[in-house]
C-alpha cells in the first residue's frame, strides 16, 4: 500500500517525482523494534564513511571499518546502507539540544553506504555500558538493502569489555556475522574491524 501512496504522490505533484529515501521498504527477518527510526533525518546522499560525533563529543575516539559482503560471504556488496546508533560516554542515549528526530536513539547516530568495494567506515566515541547494569558496551546496527528491506544485525561489542562475559557471548545470534570485535588503541584512538554478510542468520525474509 505504501508503494501505491508513492505513486499517487508522484501523479499529483507538479514537480519532478523524486522518491525520498524513507520507509519505502519493510522490515524483514522478524520484528525490528523502532528500526524505522533509521529513516528519520536520513540524508539524501550518503558516503561510505562518516562520523557519528562532533569533535567536541566527550569520550574516547573510535574508528570502525569493514566490508559488507553479499550472501555468499565473498562478493562485496555496494550501495548497502548501514545505520548506527549508540550510547554516549555515560551510557545514555542522550538527546542533542533541539533534537526532534529519533530521540529514542539518542544523538550519536549516523549512516554509511558501502562503496564499490563494499567498504564502510565510521568514526565515533567508544560507548559506555548502561548505568548500573551488566549490559556490555554496544553499538546498534541496522542494515537497509534498498529495494528489499531493513533488518537488525548483531550489535557491535568489544572483546576487551569485562561485561562481555561468556554468558553474554552466548546470547548473540551472529546475524550478519559476529559483531564482537577486537579493538586496538593507536595514538589514543580505538580501532577495529567488522565485516558483515548480508542476510546471514536473518530468517523469514
Ligand atoms: Fe542499546
Task: Give structural notes.
With 205 residues, the chain is mostly beta strands. It has one domain: Aromatic compound dioxygenase (Protocatechuate 3,4-Dioxygenase, subunit A, Sandwich), CATH 2.60.130. The protein has 2 helices and 13 strands. It has helices at 2-12, 166-169, and strands at 26-27, 49-51, 61-69, 81-86, 108-113, 119-125, 139-145, 149-152, 157-158, 180-181, 184-186, 189-193, 196-197. The strands form 3 sheets. Strands 2, 3, 6, 11, 12 and 13 form a 6-stranded mixed sheet that branches. A hairpin with a 3-residue loop joins strand 7 and strand 8 (149-152). The model is unreliable at 1-19 (pLDDT under 50). It binds fe (ii) ion. The site of fe (ii) ion has 2 residues, from loops.
Brief sketch in words of this structure:
By secondary structure, the protein is mainly beta. 7% of the residues lie in helices and 28% in strands.
Quick tags:
205 residues; mainly beta; Protocatechuate 3,4-Dioxygenase, subunit A; six-stranded mixed β-sheet; 2 helices; 7% helix; globular; disordered N terminus; binds fe (ii) ion
Amino acid at each position: 500500500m505504501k508503494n501505491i501512496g508513492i505513486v499517487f504522490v508522484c501523479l499529483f505533484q507538479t514537480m519532478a517525482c523524486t522518491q525520498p529515501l524513507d520507509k519505502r521498504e519493510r522490515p524483514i527477518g522478524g520484528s525490528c523494534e523502532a528500526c524505522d527510526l533509521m529513516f528519520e533525518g536520513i540524508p539524501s546522499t550518503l558516503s561510505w564513511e562518516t562520523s557519528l560525533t562532533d569533535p567536541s563529543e566527550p569520550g574516547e575516539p573510535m574508528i570502525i571499518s569493514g566490508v559488507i559482503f553479499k550472501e555468499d560471504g565473498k562478493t562485496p556488496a555496494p550501495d548497502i546502507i548501514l545505520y548506527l546508533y549508540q550510547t554516549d560516554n555515560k551510557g545514555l542515549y542522550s538527546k542533542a539540544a533541539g533534537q526532534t528526530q529519533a530521540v529514542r536513539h539518542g544523538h550519536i547516530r549516523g549512516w554509511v553506504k558501502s562503496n564499490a568495494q563494499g567498504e564502510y567506515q565510521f568514526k565515533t566515541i567508544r560507548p559506555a555500558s548502561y548505568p548500573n547494569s551488566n549490559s556490555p558496551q554496544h553499538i546498534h546496527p541496522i542494515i537497509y538493502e534498498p529495494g528489499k528491506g531493513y533488518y537488525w544485525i548483531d550489535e557491535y561489542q568489544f572483546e576487551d569489555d569485562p561485561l562481555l562475559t561468556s554468558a553474554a557471548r552466548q546470547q548473540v545470534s551472529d546475524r550478519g556475522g559476529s559483531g564482537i570485535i577486537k579493538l586496538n588503541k593507536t595514538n589514543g584512538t580505538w580501532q577495529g574491524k567488522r565485516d558483515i554478510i548480508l542476510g546471514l542468520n536473518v530468517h523469514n525474509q
